[in-house]
Amino acid sequence: MSYSSAINESEWSINWLSPSKCTVLHVRPSGSSSNYVNFTYHIGSRPTDLSSVDSVTDLGVTYCNRLKFSMHVDHIVYKASMRANLVLHCFQSRDRVLLSKAFCTFVRPILEYSSAIRNPVYKYEIDKIEAVQRRFLKRLNGFFTLPYKSRLAKLGLDNLYSRRVKSDLVMCYKILNNQVCVDTDTLFTRRTVNLTRGHCAKLYKSRTVSVRDGNFFSNRVVNAWNSLPDVVVSPCSVASYKHRL
């Protein structure tokens, strides 16, 4: 960054940013101690230091200073559970198909928003999100004694985990085919060796040293993407890919 550009950015921040609305998130390793060194920051020449926080919400996604999304999972589960209860109380009809469509319209988007970014890592987080749909379907007429898989089959629904996997695969297809504004080479490394098994667009999977890094989008989607048959990854449109997927 040149000196002149730094001055221009400093002037812009002084004119357009309010210190009372800005915070600092110090990202630190998971095993760091509580006395981890934190630096102070301020905007331009203003003497007031920006306050330091342990978590932040950006574009509707909450994460902590260790880049974990447990707080976000708790928030969306609580919000979706409240919305699911409202659906059951506000609809006079007890028709199972109608109520399931209401759940898919008003509740499920809360649980699936930005899933490519904050896909749950641990089993207890996966079960916590899945429990919202499980409890809702259990309260529908005639479903109380049925197992969860049978309820899904009768309504033609997928469990939320499967939907997140499909969402990852759709995003992967869009990135590899330059249909989103993301540099493909920064996320994926394509295999250059032709193999006899699988499709011709397979990806390399990077080695990771932590559960968090292994669950990052560009790592967790590789196994599912490489396991797809060639007939699925070959379509020239997203709609055709979704249909075959």
Set out the fold topology.
Layout: H1 3-16, E1 23-25, E2 51-53, E3 55-58, E4 61-64, H2 70-90, H3 96-106, H4 108-112, H5 123-138, H6 148-155, H7 160-176, H8 184-187, H9 211-214, H10 217-226, H11 230-233, H12 238-244
Parallel strand pairs: 1-2
Antiparallel strand pairs: 3-4
Helix pairs in contact: 2-3, 2-5, 7-10
Number of helices: 12
SSE pattern: HEEEEHHHHHHHHHHH
Structural class: mainly alpha
Query: Roughly what is the average pLDDT, rounded to an integer?
Result: 86
Tell me the count of domains.
3
As a percent range, the share of helical residues equals 40-55%
Are there runs of 5+ residues with pLDDT below 50, and where?
none
Distance between the termini: 45 Å
How would you describe the overall organization of this protein?
The chain has 245 residues and is mainly alpha-helical. The protein folds into 3 domains: 3-53, no CATH class; 70-157, no CATH class; 164-244, no CATH class. It contains 12 helices and 4 strands, in the order αββββααααααααααα. The strands form 2 sheets. The chain has a two-stranded parallel ribbon with strand order 1-2. The longest helix has 21 residues, at 70-90.
